[in-house]
Amino acid sequence: MEKSQKINPFILHILQEVDEEIKKGLAAGITLNIAGNNRLVPVERVTGEDFWILSKILKNCLYINGLDVGYNLLCDVGAYYAAKLLQKQLNLIYLNLMFNDIGPEGGELIAKVLHKNRTLKYLRMTGNKIENKGGMFFAAMLQINSSLEKLDLGDCDLGMQSVIAFATVLTQNQAIKAINLNRPILYSEQEESTVHVGRMLKENHCLVALHMCKHDIKNSGIQQLCDALYLNSSLRYLDVSCNKITHDGMVYLADVLKSNTTLEVIDLSFNRIENAGANYLSETLTSHNRSLKALVWFYI
C-alpha cells in the first residue's frame, strides 16, 4: 500500500460523524454504517484496499461493536482484511458484508477465522457467491464456533452438499438462533435437503428463525418440515416463501398448527396455496391456534 493512499471520502465522512458522537458522550456500542447503498450522503463505494485502511483504524476502537459495509466492492481482498479485523477487534458483535462480490476463497478466509473468534454474534454474507465450496467451510466452522448466533447465507449459491452439511451440523450446534439459507442452487427433484432440515428440526431446540425461500419445496417437503414441527419447541419464524407448495401441502401445516404453540410467523408468499389451502389454515387458526401472530402470503 502506497503512503500516498488517501482515505475514501465516504469513510472519512462517517468517521467524522462518529467523532461527533464521541464528543457528545454517545460512544458506547456504535454500529458503523458504511453501506454502499446509502442514498442520504455522497457515496464512493468501499474497495478491498479501502477496507485495509478502515481495519487499521478500527482494530483499536473499543466503542465500535458493529460494522455495516454491505453493497460495496470489497471482493476477496476485502474479505482477507475483514478476517484480519475479526482476529484483532474483539468487541465486534455484528458484521454485515452482504453483496460485496466475495467469492469462495474470501468465504473460506472468513469462515476459518471464526473457528477462534468468540465475540461475533451476527454475520451477514447475503449475496456473496461463495458457492458450495464456501458453504462447506461455514458449515465446518459451526462445528467449532459456539458463539455465533445469527448467520445469513441467502443468495450465496450454496449447493445441495453444503445445505445438507448445515442441516447436519445444526443437530449439534446449540448456539445458532437464526440461519438464512435462501436460494441455494439445487438440481435434484428428490428434496434431499428438505428431508435433512426436517431431521435437524426434530433434534435442534435452539433455532428460532429458519429461512428456506426458493428451495423448490413441494408438498412432500412441507410434510417433512411439519412432521418435525410436532417435536420442535423452539422455532418461531419459518420462511418457506417462493416454493412449489400447493393447497394439498396446507393440510399438513394446518394439522401441526393445532398442537404447535411455538411458531409465531410463517411466510408462505408466492406458493400455490389457493382458496382451498387458505380455508384449511383458516379453520385451524379460528378454532385451535392462538399463538401464531403473522401468516404472510402473496400470490396464493
UniProtKB/TrEMBL annotation:
* Record keywords: Repeat
Q: Name one Pfam family in it.
A: LRR_6
- Record's InterPro entries? Leu-rich_rpt, LRR-containing_regulator, LRR_dom_sf
What residue intervals traverse the membrane? none
UniProt protein name? Leucine rich repeat containing 34, isoform CRA_d
Source organism = Homo sapiens
